[in-house]
Write a structure and sequence with these properties.
This is C-1-tetrahydrofolate synthase, cytoplasmic. The protein is α/β, with parallel strands linked by helices and about 900 residues long. It has four domains: about 5-285, Rossmann fold (3-Layer(aba) Sandwich); about 330-440 and about 615-775, Rossmann fold (3-Layer(aba) Sandwich), CATH 3.40.50.300; about 445-615, Domain 2, N(10)-formyltetrahydrofolate synthetase; about 790-875, Roll (Formyltetrahydrofolate synthetase, domain 3), CATH 3.10.410.
Length: about 900
């Protein structure tokens, strides 16, 4: 009598696991930090569940899967459990999630809701309704349920041909019977499903070439039920009394094995049959999910669907063009460029904040080409750097199908309501929705305003309290007893360390130490910190604070700046992460003590509070161009008195998203002498990212102005010199262009000159895009203009001589004195941020062209220690613009019936 061939699930499972182990090792050679992540969620601690969990953890560990048990208390509620699963769904290091059933809980929890809460992309158990549905319609591209899939693999190993075979499935459970029947059907077997209500089950089974049993009744299927030569797959596992065993029990299946083995041609044992396969297929699903995530991470080309432009002649206003285009849902754009769920926080459906965690996840992608867009010395009307930048990325992304992102500053509301108008580009090269771009966006500037003014309030408050209290009372209020205990806060402990006081017990300080700790002794004449507001308000340029009788005569002259002129905005733009931002905020110098020591935000105890206010503002904002290509909008430091570039974190995220073969194009404010120089010497010095090429935007209008053309005045008609051909003026203005080209070459960058002819979106920038691609293919010889170790004066001369064409720099007596003070205070090694007119290469806005050999006068200095630069004031630069006689305010309105903003550009 021949016995059935044993189909060893243990052996097959071992083979599968070994193959998976090799695959994981192979991927690790490509991505060293790669590891498939599996999380097993268990509610309670049932011992039978623990047995299965230990098996899964052992198998996963041997393969190289990062497996962790998420054990939750029996008291957990359904909402709490759903929240845990939501967090796992959004964790990019997790590729597979299984919820161990049954749930061992005290509260009522719908297990179906729980299994369906697991993301279908991470449902490695294959139990989500979507994955089950795919199997039911023959789509085997999703995750298949592990036990039925294991059954199919064992049938394949038996040698029996499924195609055309009669298959009978006993049981119709969601986990085994129903999906097993569906899988057999899609492998072209003729399938019959039997269940508790089926009549003549034994007769039906006897007609089966393949018999899959998962009925849940011990040894229900007898040998007489089995067709001679049939293949039997026993999915059951039951405990049966057996006095011969030490435990008094043994495991049996749903098939009477002893009877079946003399009839069947092949049969699975219990244990050692389907059970090990279930675990193996779970591991295979997990590894497959991880490989998919890794392939997506390394995917070179975005699956980007551009938006089509409908060009109209004559070209309508910017707002009409912007509203004629329907933007993509921002979640769709985020998905197209490779962002995942927890990295995208939507603000409505047209803008979103992007988490800095994307940088770490995308690090294996490498970095794309980095292009800085700047201009020649502009007219007061601006020469279209933003428009050119947007047109360039539209050409690269929508027309040449390269991964391309624009990184732009967020505009202040001051110009929006004043005279300049918006900063979203123009014509058929715009960021949309342009109303959102120019008004509020996600509130980052308001966060900067709040943080800046909190620091200002604390500064004046500290001066007041130090002026009105004795040392001991001041100290006791700074370190009060709370519930009988007195202790220093973290920020106070940092101040003690800076003072060299190595004590942590507030009651142990000597009187002299109490005075040093409690008194900042701020000299009001040295205060550098101003309050800010994000509107143009000339009457705040000079004010007096502290005039209320409650301030006891401690009034002083003060002033407001526009919010984007705050050092905090520069800090936001230069910070590399939250911790770096926090450290920079703490280092900001707001004044000096009467002894000449710098007083910082950390000394005032406000660093943590500032960080809390700016936590969300550090995340860049995702928007899109008119042609549906991505834009990151972030930070807006004032280009005259700060470095005038968008944020380091936005560029970093963009460089990772585009990948090695993509392009990130970012703007530097004003001409190359100001914006590009600061971009390189300040921003690139801080980030360590160096540009591959520079795009220099020029217009015929600006060149004519530098050739001696009539003044260009906002709001006034252009002189006919600008509207008619005048080659003589154009030729005389060329030296200004040549100086700016030279500026790029001084940093070792290839320079592409873009003559802004107000092109037709991306299609009008194709030649520019191709030129940029070629420029970025050249070897990168980028170099900084000066080293930190040079003196402040040497740095000034290096910038003035190389970027402006000056012969030398001259310091006023006040500037000389301040420079020595800053150098003595330890700020001499910081880079220089030139505060100079943007209207001329010189320090005089009236001088056009490209003069040589002039003297640049520096009136004074101040330090932006948090941002990390020393500002050199070359002439009077207003940090608070004023409104004109007829500001844009007159034209802006809201249609209360339609909700549409009117008159915005």
């Amino acid at each position: 009598m021949s016995l059935a061939k044993l189909i060893s699930g243990t052996q097959v499972a071992n083979e599968i696991r070994e193959a998976l182990k090799q695959q994981v090792c192979k991927w690790k050679s490509v991505l060293p930090t790669f590891a498939p992540g599996l999380r097993i969620v268990q509610v309670g601690a049932r011992e039978d569940s623990n047995v299965y969990i230990r098996m899964k953890i052992k198998a996963a560990t041997e393969i190289g899967i990062d497996v962790r048990l998420v054990q939750l208390p029996r008291s957990i509620t359904q909402i709490e459990l759903l929240d845990k699963i939501f967090n796992l769904n959004n964790d990019p290091s997790v590729h597979g999630i299984i919820v161990q059933m049954p749930l061992d809980c005290e509260t009522k929890i719908d297990s179906h809701k729980i299994t369906d809460a697991v993301s279908p992309d991470k449902d490695v158990d294959g139990l989500h309704t979507i994955n089950e549905g795919r199997v039911s319609i023959g789509d085997l591209g999703g995750f298949m349920p592990c036990t039925p899939w294991g059954c199919i693999e064992l049938i394949k190993r038996s040698g029996v041909k499924m195609e055309g075979a009669n298959a009978v499935v006993l049981g119709r459970s969601k986990i085994v019977g129903t999906p097993a029947a569906n899988l057999l059907k899609w492998y072209n077997a003729t399938v019959t499903v039997c269940h508790s209500k089926t009549k003549n089950i034994a007769d039906i089974c006897r007609g089966a070439d393949i018999l899959v049993v998962g009925i849940g009744v011990p040894e229900m299927v007898k040998g007489s039920w089995i067709k001679p030569g049939a293949v039997v797959i026993d999915c059951g596992i039951n405990v049966k009394p057996d006095p011969s065993k030490k435990t008094g029990t043994r495991l049996v299946g749903d098939v009477d094995f002893e009877e079946a083995k003399v009839v069947a041609s092949a049969i699975t044992p219990v244990p050692g049959g389907v059970g090990p396969m279930t675990v193996a297929m779970l591991m295979q699903n997990t590894v497959r999910s991880a490989f998919t995530a890794a392939e997506n991470l390394l995917q070179k080309a975005w699956d980007l669907a551009p938006l089509t432009l409908k060009l109209i002649k004559p070209v309508p206003s910017d707002i009409v063009i912007a509203r004629s285009q329907t933007p993509k849902d921002i979640s769709l754009l985020a998905q197209e460029i490779g962002l995942i769920g927890n990295e995208v926080s939507q603000y409505g459906n047209k803008k979103a904040k992007i988490s800095l965690s994307a940088i770490d996840r995308l690090r294996p992608r490498g970095n794309g080409s980095y292009v800085v867009v700047c201009g020649i010395t502009p007219t007061p009307l601006g020469e279209g750097k933003s428009t050119t930048l947007i047109g360039l990325v539209q050409a690269l992304g929508a027309h040449l199908h390269r991964n391309a992102m624009a990184c732009l500053r967020q505009p202040s509301q001051g110009p929006t309501f004043g005279i300049k108008g918006g900063a979203a580009g123009g014509g058929y090269a715009q960021v949309i929705p342009m109303e959102d771009f120019n008004l509020h966006l996600t509130g980052d500037i308001h966060a900067v305003t709040a943080a800046n003014n909190l620091l200002a309030a604390q500064l004046d408050t500290r001066i007041f309290h130090e002026s009105t209290q004795e040392d001991k009372n001041l100290y006791e209020r700074l370190v009060p007893k709370i519930k009988g205990e007195r202790k220093f806060s973290k920020i106070q402990l940092r101040r003690l360390q800076r003072l060299g006081i190595n004590k942590t017990d507030p009651d142990s300080l000597a009187n002299e130490e109490i005075t040093r700790f409690a008194r900042l002794d701020i000299d009001p004449d040295t205060i550098m910190w101003e309050r800010v507001v994000d509107v143009n308000d000339r009457y705040l340029r000079q004010i007096t604070v502290g005039q209320s009788p409650t301030e006891k005569g401690l009034s002083r002259p003060a002033s407001f700046s526009i919010s984007v002129a705050s050092e905090i905005m520069a800090v936001l733009a230069l910070a590399s992460d939250l911790e770096d931002m926090k450290q920079r905020l703490g280092r900001m110098v707001v004044a000096f003590s009467r002894a000449g020591e710098p007083v910082t935000a950390d000394d005032l105890g406000v660093t943590g509070a500032l960080t809390v206010l700016l936590k969300d503002a550090l995340e860049p904002n995702l928007m899109q161009t008119l042609e549906g290509t991505p834009v990151l909008v972030h930070a807006g430091p004032f280009a005259n008195i700060a470095h005038g570039c968008s944020s380091i974190v936005a560029d970093e995220i963009a460089l990772k998203l585009v990948g090695k073969e993509g392009f990130v194009c970012t703007e530097a404010g004003f001409g190359s002498d100001i914006g590009m120089e600061k971009f390189c010497n300040i921003k690139c010095r801080s980030s360590g990212r160096y540009p591959n090429a520079m795009v220099l935007v020029a217009t015929v209008r600006a060149l004519k102005m530098h050739g001696g053309g009539a003044p260009v005045t906002p709001g006034a008609p252009l002189n006919k010199q600008y509207t008619e051909e005048n080659l003589q003026l154009l030729e005389k203005g060329i030296p200004n262009l040549l100086q700016h080209i030279s500026n790029g070459h001084k940093f070792g960058m290839p320079v592409v000159v873009a003559i802004n002819g107000f092109s037709e979106g991306g299609a009008g920038c194709l030649d520019l895009a191709n030129a940029v691609i070629k420029a970025c293919e050249k070897s990168n010889n980028f170099k900084l203009l000066y080293q930190n170790e040079m003196s402040l004066l040497d740095k000034l001369n290096t910038i003035a001589q190389n970027m402006y064409g000056a012969a030398k720099v001259e310091l006023t007596p006040d500037a000389e004195k301040t420079m020595q003070k800053l150098t003595k205070a330890g700020f001499g090694n910081l880079p220089i941020c030139m505060s100079k007119t943007s209207a001329s290469l010189t320090g005089d806005a009236k001088i056009k062209g490209a003069p040589k050999g002039f003297t640049l006068t520096v009136q004074n200095f101040y330090v932006s220690a948090g941002a990390g630069f020393v500002v050199a004031m070359c002439g009077e630069i207003s940090k608070m613009p004023g409104l004109p006689t007829r500001p844009c305010i007159y034209d802006i309105d809201l249609n209360t019936e339609t909700g549409i903003i009117e008159g915005l550009f």
